[in-house]
Design brief:
It is globular and about 30 Å long. The chain has a domain of about 80 residues: 3-Layer(aba) Sandwich (Rossmann fold), CATH 3.40.50.2300. Helix content is about 45%, strand content about 20%. The longest helix has 15 residues. With about 120 residues, it is α/β, with parallel strands linked by helices. The chain has a five-stranded parallel β-sheet, with helices on both faces. β4, α4 and β5 form a beta-alpha-beta unit. The protein is built from five helices and five strands, in the order βαβαβαβαβα. This is Response regulator transcription factor. InterPro entries: Bact_response_regulator, CheY-like_superfamily, Sig_transdc_resp-reg_receiver. One of its GO terms (biological process) is phosphorelay signal transduction system. Pfam families: Response_reg. It comes from Litoribacter ruber.
Length: about 120
């Protein structure tokens, strides 16, 4: 399974990537939304993981673009350090499948990813 991980926090991105790779996922990681979106345009991914606040293009903008411009139904999980309820509601409104507040628990992330991927099969 191939996934994209867009997260500007180096430590979190690298640790999640290491964890997910150890669980058998092929992880393409990016530190900003612009590069991640470019990759999504040319490669097929099974799931998209993105932070909201990133340089260039935010995770919200990337999600909206994936849904409206690219018309992809690839599962998207958004995570953020924002604990504002409206942010979570907005994430679902633009097409995110899941929302996970930071700090992200790798175990919880994995369970939610597997749930989303199982729904597709």
């Amino acid at each position: 399974m191939r996934l994209i991980l867009a997260e500007d926090n180096d430590l979190l991105r690298k640790s999640l990537s290491f964890f997910l790779t150890s669980k058998g996922f092929e992880v393409d990681q990016f530190e900003n939304g612009k590069e991640a979106l470019e990759a999504i345009k040319v490669k097929e991914y099974d799931i998209i993981l993105t932070d909201i606040n990133m340089p260039g293009i935010s995770g919200m903008e990337m999600t909206q673009h994936v849904r409206t411009e690219l018309n992809l139904d690839t599962p998207i999980i958004i995570f953020t350090s924002s604990n504002v309820e409206q942010t979570e509601l907005d994430s679902f409104d633009i097409g995110a499948n899941e929302f996970i507040p930071k700090p992200v628990s790798p175990a919880v992330l994995l369970v939610r990813m597997k749930k989303l991927l199982k729904q597709l099969n």
